[in-house]
Amino acid sequence: MATKGKDFAGLSVALVTPFKQGEVDYDTFGAQIEFQIEAGTTCLVPVGTTGESPTLSHDEHDRVIDFVVQKAAGRIKVMPGVGSNSTAEALRLTKSAEKAGADAALQVAPYYNKPTQEGFYQHFKALAEETGLQQCVYNIPGRTGKNVEPETIARLAELENITMVKEATGQMDQASQILGTTNLTLLSGDDSMTLPYMAVGGEGVISVVGNIVPRDMIALVNAAASGDMAAARAQHHKLFALCREMLGLATNPIPLKAAMEMLGRDTGEMRLPMTPLDDAGRVQLKQSLTAYGLL
Predict the structure, then answer these.
(1) Which residue in 146, 166, 197, 257 is the catalytic one?
(2) Residue 173 and residue 183: Cα distance in Å, rounded?
(3) Is 138 assigned a catalytic role?
(4) Which positions bind pyruvate (predicted)?
(5) Regarding beta strands 134-139 and 104-108, do their DSSP bridges make them parallel or antiparallel, or are they unpaired?
């Protein structure tokens, strides 16, 4: 049984959305896209959690996707976040991304309203059947409030356009069950879990830390994919502290935006209710970036 979604194996980067004086900073955004293309990243993932999608208007959301697709110009894949807790709204966002020329759609599990497993199935089924894009089911119960169970993902895998799952439960057993019962491409939703997931059959990561060190994440993924586990472990341990800080100092993307500001690649500006990293966190982050060799 051939693996679906295999063309998205490797490093995908969950892009930040740069802001300047309250507006999307498209000049900085364009530079970030070029940075990823030059690094050899497989896919750009705009307007996800890392891209602060909950604070973007629908018009901004559509415009960001259109901008990324146009800037990518076929040189790199684009899989925007288009999920919602409303199936009708997710469908509108997905159709808009499809019209813009996106290559796939990242669909976060409906959040807050906590559907049943049948509700999850019918939601993703509608999105898969009513649009032509490849669909990546994004399972992150720590944010959405409820797990999409492996049995539900197995049912969804029977649908032609559902080709990937972004696994952000942190549960190795769940990943193993999905990989053992489906032909989906499994992508890690946590940087620090990339190697463990790939060890059981995952094929890459949708990365946060890839915003700043894409080449190092690519080296990890490529080593694991080629079976060079010694090299993959070395990269994992090199990246581990940085990965943990990107997600551990404060809610994503607060530490990442602070890091990118320190590196001169972003203003660091966020939209409420997201607030900047506190002083103690900035000191710790600066020490980590210095120790890594980035500052």
Answers:
(1) 166
(2) 17
(3) yes
(4) 50, 206
(5) parallel
Is 197 known to be catalytic?
Answer: no
Catalytic residue among 138, 146, 197, 257: 138
Domain span at residue 202 reads: 6-226
Residue 180 dihedral angles phi and psi, to the nearest 5° = -85, -15
Binding-site annotation, residues for pyruvate: 50, 206
Q: Is the pTM of this model over 0.90?
A: yes
Residue positions in the annotated binding site?
50, 206
Strands 19-20 and 23-24: antiparallel
- 270 within some domain: no
Tens-binned pLDDT, residue by residue, of the chain (295 aa) = 668 989 999 999 999 999 999 999 999 999 999 999 999 999 999 999 999 999 999 999 999 999 999 999 999 999 999 999 999 999 999 999 999 999 999 999 999 999 999 999 999 999 999 999 999 999 999 999 999 999 999 999 999 999 999 999 999 999 999 999 999 999 999 999 999 999 999 999 999 999 999 999 999 999 999 999 999 999 999 999 999 888 789 999 999 999 999 999 999 999 999 999 999 999 999 999 999 999 9
Decide: residue 9, CB within 10 A, 0-12 exposed, 13-18 middle, 19+ buried: buried
Q: What is the DSSP letter of 81?
A: B
CATH of the domain at 169: 3.20.20.70
- In the chain, how many H helices and how many E strands? 12, 10
What is the C-alpha to C-alpha distance for residues 188 and 118, in angstroms, rounded to an integer? Answer: 24
Residue 281 lies in a domain: no
